[in-house]
Design goal:
This protein has helices at about 15-25, 35-45, 95-110, 125-135, 150-160, and strands at about 5, 50-60, 60-75, 75-85, 115-120. With about 160 residues, the protein is an alpha+beta fold.
Length: about 160
């Protein structure tokens, strides 16, 4: 199968949001996605984009995407965080995911960062195994911590 990996364009964002929704459904959180294609266009393109997105295109259709952005580590300096990498279910096993993954790693090297990082669900053994085989370290002793908007509001109210 022939496909192309390229940097996403604003007009790709409706397809990217479809992929994000497909990932949310796979991760058993279909209601969690609240952003829109318009949000992605606003935040990812322009003078100071919040993220970089790569897409896998086959036969004129976006079949996969990888979205990443810069973070800063007090230990390593500037790093790349891979937020999501997803390939449409019917296109998995054709090399698109591996090509997107490779493109993000190449992007990180082009940017001169010392680390690329991401989060993988503990029950997603297929992905964990893939990342381990690629040379990545899959930590079991670090926990992801998040605070959603309502919890932030509640915390700030409580600590006034």
């Amino acid at each position: 199968m022939e496909f192309t990996i390229r940097k996403a364009r604003p007009e790709d964002m409706p397809s990217v949001i479809e992929l994000i929704q497909e990932l949310a459904e796979f991760e058993k959180e279909p209601e969690a996605v609240i952003i829109t294609a318009e949000d992605l266009k606003r935040d990812g393109f322009g003078e100071n984009p919040s993220f970089t997105c790569f897409v896998a295109e086959a036969e004129g259709k976006i079949e996969g995407m990888a979205l990443c952005y810069f973070r800063y580590s007090t230990w390593k300096g500037k790093t790349v965080h891979l937020e999501d990498l997803v390939v449409r279910e019917n296109m998995r096993g054709k090399g698109l995911g591996n090509a997107l993954y490779k493109r993000v790693i190449q992007f990180a090297k082009e940017e001169g960062v010392k680390r690329t990082e991401w989060v993988v669900l503990d029950w997603n053994t297929h992905a964990r195994d893939f990342y381990s085989r690629s040379g990545a370290t899959v930590f079991t002793h670090w926990c992801t911590v998040q605070m959603e908007e309502q919890a932030m509001d509640k915390f700030l109210e409580k600590t006034r």
